[in-house]
Amino acid sequence: xxxxxxxxxxxxxxxxxxxxxxxxxxxxxxxxxxxxxxxxxxxxxxxxxxxxxxxxxxxxxxxxxxxxxxxxxxxxxxxxxxxxxxxxxxxxxxxxxxxxxxxxxxxxxxxxxxxxxxxxxxxxxxxxxxxxxxxxxxxxxxxxxxxxxxxxxxxxxxxxxxxxxxxxxxxxxxxxxxxxxxxxxxxxxxxxxxxxxxxxxxxxxxxxxxxxxxxxxxxxxxxxxxxxxxxxxxxxxxxxxxxxxxxxxxxxxxxxxxxxxxxxxxxxxxxxxxxxxxxxxxxxxxxxxxxxxxxxxxxxxxxxxxxxxxxxxxxxxxxxxxxxxxxxxxxxxxxxxxxxxxxxxxxxxxxxxxxxxxxxxxxxxxxxxxxxxxxxxxxxxxxxxxxxxxxxxxxxxxxxxxxxx
Amino acid sequence: xxxxxxxxxxxxxxxxxxxxxxxxxxxxxxxxxxxxxxxxxxxxxxxxxxxxxxxxxxxxxxxxxxxxxxxxxxxxxxxxxxxxxxxxxxxxxxxxxxxxxxxxxxxxxxxxxxxxxxxxxxxxxxxxxxxxxxxxxxxxxxxxxxxxxxxxxxxxxxxxxxxxxxxxxxxxxxxxxxxxxxxxxxxxxxxxxxxxxxxxxxxxxxxxxxxxxxxxxxxxxxxxxxxxxxxxxxxxxxxxxxxxxxxxxxxxxxxxxxxxxxxxxxxxxxxxxxxxxxxxxxxxxxxxxxxxxxxxxxxxxxxxxxxxxxxxxxxxxxxxxxxxxxxxxxxxxxxxxxxxxxxxxxxxxxxxxxxxxxxxxxxxxxxxxxxxxxxxxxxxxxxxxxxxxxxxxxxxxxxxxxxxx
Lengths: 405, 405
What we know:
Largest sheet of chain A: 5 strands, mixed
Oligomer: homodimer
Number of strands of chain A: 15
Structural class of chain A: alpha/beta
Radius of gyration of chain A: 23 Å
CATH class of the largest domain in chain A: Alpha Beta
Number of domains of chain A: 2
Number of helices of chain A: 13
Helix content of chain A: 25-40%
Strand content of chain A: 15-25%
CATH architecture of the largest domain in chain A: 3-Layer(aba) Sandwich
Distance between the termini of chain A: 28 Å
Shape of chain A: elongated
């Protein structure tokens, strides 16, 4: 009997997670010896639990090809964490029933830290419940916070988008600052790890260029130091561009975004970080301030994807299948940097126990001593990840994002 | 003696205002008969008032060329409105002194409605203060709200950026909605005119595609109807993408955003619509909601400029000089649509009195009867404006935005 496989997408999606799906599909078609079927779980592990599977072999090749340039998770994703085998045995039995029914021998889970944990748990079914499965985790997260791997697929494209956006908004602000707005704040994703905020520093190609201040969740936010620094930058440069991670905290451990803004009716408003900072700047420094919040735009901006990111997303998918067919279980293909100039990298394999639930934050030696910018070492790390443009095809002035599965 | 000219940029900048500058420069170099000098006023009319001029002929051609792909206003812009001749005669005498000193015969002002008014006032110096000057207004505004012209340079590129962003964020939301976020809101610019919000509808390439709701400043905002519509969309589609103009108002005439942030002077600041709407959705409908605010990112996104927009921005600059040298005064080159398919247009000339201080809003017959989306007629109008990609050159993974004047 043929041994089949399931691929599923999990957690917050990226602009290149579908490229990993394509890597899995192509590797499966090229490498699997017994002509088994590759299924996709609809909406991540939920599609597996509910036996809601898509037979990928039934999708025409010209549709499959579109995975390469379509952002979001075309098979659907989910935020759902399996508990451990002991407390949720029924859930695992449900899984095994579906695996049995479709004779699934391989499970490829495409996600971040939480999904690595889910994948690890599925891999344990082999030993603990005596169902033979190879579970492989395909890394993906815009947060760039997975351990072991040099960087995470999805991140390079966000970095390219954020750095480009800061260059553009910085030039806009520079044009206007003589009589109008003096401060611009961009809020970016990153609740615990500040990699995305750090990547804005790539926009710094000339002296006095934006961003002038970068606020990382790795550093305590001090409003007085922040405002002083803004005044200093305005005195020197005439305007100030700030990039803030959504996850910055005060010294008491409270998220800045949890601060309360009271509206005209006296109701407490949920402020985003950018709102809070903008209000600080306008009330305390009396400066005109604009702010933007990138939110989903940053992680879905396939129109500005990095070629390096696209290639790496493909390779981790491809190698995931390769490792599984070689008999590996509970591992993750990861990106190993060989050199900076020229940028060289390769795919290697790591045990999931070294990745699941762990988190790689921006290290101290990448952060400026005043804690409001990053160091050159961080830039050297970031630079290769945004290299190359990989534009989607355009039809009538818009990207061809017509893939719906 | 040579007759010289001044070009200046005014008001909020765009991703292609520098392309109009290039059109002015090239036309001046090609068409002006007496080899006069073209100056740029630094920071708009302020540079003229303060005799802070840049001699454009001194800038090397390989630097000038970069105007074509650099967003923001490279000569600096300003928000400064001249009062009329009677109340501010001294200011005008200051202007004339600078004109005299540099023997300026032509003034090219690149801006929106307010700048058209400033340009009109400068043009009146000829008659009222007996200084011979030809003042030409070069249109530019992302708001697309100038009268007479079919569309405004700067707008097409914003429209392309917003429609692309909504496609991308829409696919992201679609992936996540089974277990996580159900509503996504994007706040866009547009205080009085909803053209930018309307342009998001271009993302609607397939049934049930985002955006599902568009809130225009032309229509009264009713929170109950809004929430009902969201529920309806969620029931049908599973998720809901909303695009909201910053300038939407309640039936009592108050800006929706005014309930959020009050600045140091006690002035309400626009830019909080998304927060208010997101809070409505999460508290009244108990749905997980994400929101983004594009702010300066939308109007400076040169990396995703429309080719049509770039070409039109160039032409209005070029024709501005042509009209001036033909002896015209107090006019504006504008874009006249000849046909939709194929899209054809030409440049014509209109008297500034028909443009200054006036505003073109989205007309009723472009708006859906439920006032929460636009009609096909509006799409037909918008479609040609985003055609073609005009990518800037990239260096090391980022656009070459190294122009500093």
